[in-house]
Specification:
CATH superfamily: paralog of FGE (formylglycine-generating enzyme)
Strand content: 15-25%
Strand order of the largest sheet: 13-12-11-14
Shape: globular
CATH class: Alpha Beta
Radius of gyration: 19 Å
Low-confidence stretches: 1-6, 10-33, 38-43, 68-77
CATH architecture: Alpha-Beta Complex
Largest sheet: 4 strands, mixed
Number of domains: 1
Distance between the termini: 38 Å
Number of helices: 4
Number of strands: 15
Length: 361
């Protein structure tokens, strides 16, 4: 599977930002029994901050062998979730759901903050670009009305003028009535700014994955090993013919409000599907291999010192986790809990959000 996030550094005609979704149809439903990791001993004596739950910490197996190394016949780019390796994390608090429009609006009202999508790209960033194209905006999923080959993502993604967290689909759209939906069109630095204001931080990739597993060890999904146990949908993903027709069998066509599906074993909602979530780590496809080669215990890893993605050299990327409402077994299966996403840290989209964590003092 390959996952490239949209980038303000990539400009093709009127496209200022580019995004490639996680990919490659593969079947990962297996029928093995769910493995539980017992929580560490010790009682929680601290009171949980509002809207957060305590993640107990402990050891787990990070990554997934369910990776697929192709995107429309392009080989060798997606072995980044291997090798599966043992990691230990300490206990921490985590938001029970993604940051919502209502929560982000409080931050903006208190600080006057403007997201990157609300700020026009500059001529210094794009010295050869037509000045008329240097306008505020963001990348929006725009499905074609008919089936298309899955070899050109520009058929369903477009850079849309004035699209931002207040106007997810551009001028004339609104978040009115969607206060309880995840905030989107958020670049990494926007998410980090919110977290700092809230007295929190973004999770490391290891913290995020440990929390997402909810006490289940080496399972395919955050809830177990069957995608629809008892014919019940457990996350907001894409059903139908991607990208043209989402049948909404899981109850939603497009993004859903938070907390619409069962919480996991740690009390967290939407750790698979709905919207991608930023992590604090820089992205490198060889990071897991580097950790394992160093030997010794791997405790609270913080990610590599810098970013490199051979698919887009020169674009610094941060890790994203969880997949989104666009994940489909036809093209994107990144709702698999150990899989990895990545994206230009200065770019958001309308299926990318975040949640925060907080250290336990």
């Amino acid at each position: 599977m390959l996952h490239l996030t949209p980038s303000r550094k990539v400009l093709q005609s009127y496209i200022l930002a580019i995004f490639v979704l996680a990919t490659a149809a593969y079947t990962v439903d297996n029928q093995s029994p769910e493995k539980k990791t017992p929580p560490p001993s010790g009682k929680n004596t601290a009171m949980a901050p509002a809207g957060m739950v305590r993640i107990p910490g402990g050891k787990f197996r990070m990554g997934t062998p369910a990776a697929n190394e192709s995107l429309c016949s392009v080989p060798g780019l997606t072995s980044d979730a291997l090798p599966v390796h043992t990691v230990q994390v300490k206990a921490f608090w985590m938001d029970e759901h993604e940051v919502t429009n209502a929560e982000f609006e409080k931050f903006v009202k208190a600080t006057g903050y403007k997201t990157l999508a609300e700020i026009a790209p500059t001529a210094a960033e794009f010295p050869t670009a037509d000045p008329a194209l240097l306008v505020p905006g963001s990348v929006v999923f725009s499905p074609p009305a008919y089936e298309v080959p899955l070899d050109n993502y520009l058929q369903w993604w477009e850079y849309r003028k004035n699209a931002n967290w207040r106007q997810p689909f551009g001028k004339g759209s609104s978040i009115k009535g969607k206060e309880n939906y995840p905030v989107v069109h958020i670049a990494w630095e926007d998410a980090a700014a919110y977290a700092k204001w809230a007295g929190k931080r973004l999770p490391t990739e290891a913290e995020w994955e440990f929390a997402a597993r909810g006490g289940l060890s080496e399972n395919t999904y955050t809830w177990g090993n069957q995608f629809t146990p008892g014919a019940r949908y457990m996350a907001n993903t894409f059903q139908g013919s991607f990208p043209s027709k989402d049948l909404g069998k899981d109850g939603f066509k497009g993004m859903a409000p938070v907390k619409q599906y069962p919480k996991n074993g740690y009390g967290l909602y939407d750790m698979a599907g709905n919207v991608w979530e930023w992590c604090s780590d820089w992205y490198r496809p060889d990071y897991y291999t580097t950790l394992v080669r160093k030997g010794g215990a791997i405790v609270d890893p913080k990610g590599p010192a810098d970013s490199f993605d051979p698919a887009e050299p020169g674009i610094s990327k941060k890790v994203q986790k969880g997949g989104s409402f666009l994940c489909s077994d036809q093209y994107c299966s990144r709702y698999v809990v150990g899989s990895r996403g990545k994206g230009d840290w200065k770019t958001g989209t309308n299926h990318l959000g975040f949640r925060c964590v907080k250290d336990i003092r």
